[in-house]
């Protein structure tokens, strides 16, 4: 089977980019398919994978999707007869789309805006959102499309509702975890040593927040939640508008207890050093970092959103929270004051995460690709 995977970027850092990277590393071990990747950037490509570089000119976000689709169309001619799988949407003709997001669902639930800013910026963001909605609609109406892989039941529901896709064409295959990287650290002395290495507080309850797109993921609420908890520190791992959110911490009285660690190639170290994971996101598909936190033995505090609701059990491996600081604060206090419960929930979280592996995801996707490749073109 000739498999051509389309992705904007393939990288061990990020969300959708890292999911593609993890999966392609496993698919490359298969002896039943020949893999070509059409992407702009591919870090640490596994042996045996052919790379077709995609090139697009620098342009405002409003035009980036259009330029990417054109680049994909040009690159497809170099892989004749292949089954094309797009990681994320493209209006170029593909046979399978792996849906890591639903722009229409995000807009319906959260509005089109990401982040603060002046009216001009907000208007521009709204225009980008409308454009991406239209692009997504065209992608799912593609004539060659044979199947859609939704990474969660919630994304599947949204795709069927908003784009009227036949139910039998939308298959749920969730994301996985690299358990050789993300695993519990139960030795208190080793955890203390790791906190010293990372220059993190040793005596505070350490709440972890990992990811970008901080407005959508609710970092503001997490900061306000720890503002009145002097024995709780919040460690923020990822890239974002540090100045704006640090100002929020200063105004709320959390300054000095909100630590911006920045983007790191080793988030597993921070998760291993932490006590709880806080993820008050407004919208997701099937986020990687909460499941990796669970694999690291941390109880997860998160709302009932796509992906999370499929594995988080309240009071068993974490706590459900609402999108407000008071709810997050209550959850943090509950776990701060009950170390035994915190440990019990963390152990259960690790067991839950063990059900999700990238090897399993690769096997399921490979079976789907092989069945689709046998269909008449």
Approximately how much helix is present in the residues?
A: 40-55%
Order of helices and strands: EEHEEEHEEHHEHEHEHEHEHEHEEHHH
Query: Which overall shape is indicated by the principal axes computed on the Cα atoms?
Result: globular
Work out the number of β strands.
15
Are there runs of 5+ residues with pLDDT below 50, and where? none
Helix/strand/pairing class, anyone? alpha/beta
Strand count, sense and barrel status of the largest sheet are: 7 strands, parallel
Biggest sheet strand line-up: 5-3-1-6-7-8-9
Cα(first) to Cα(last) distance is 14 Å
Quick check: average pLDDT?
93
Q: Tell me the fraction of residues in β-strands, as a range.
A: 15-25%
How many whole angstroms does the radius of gyration measure?
Answer: 21 Å
Number of helices: 13
Overview of the molecule:
- The chain has about 375 residues and is α/β, with parallel strands linked by helices.
- It is about 40% helix and about 15% strand.
- It has helices at about 15-25, 60-75, 105-110, 120-140, 155-165, 190-200, 220-225, 240-250, 265-275, 290-295, 325-335, 340-355, 360-375, and strands at about 1-5, 10, 35-40, 40, 50-55, 85, 95-100, 145-150, 170, 205-210, 230-235, 260, 275-280, 300, 320.
- The strands form 3 sheets. The protein has a 7-stranded parallel sheet with strand order 5-3-1-6-7-8-9, with helices on both faces. The protein has a 6-stranded parallel sheet with strand order 12-11-10-13-14-15, with helices on both faces. The protein has a two-stranded parallel sheet with strand order 2-4.
- Helix 2 packs parallel to helix 4.
- The longest helix is centred in the middle third of the chain and has 22 residues, at about 120-140.
- It is globular and about 60 Å long.
- The two termini are about 15 Å apart.
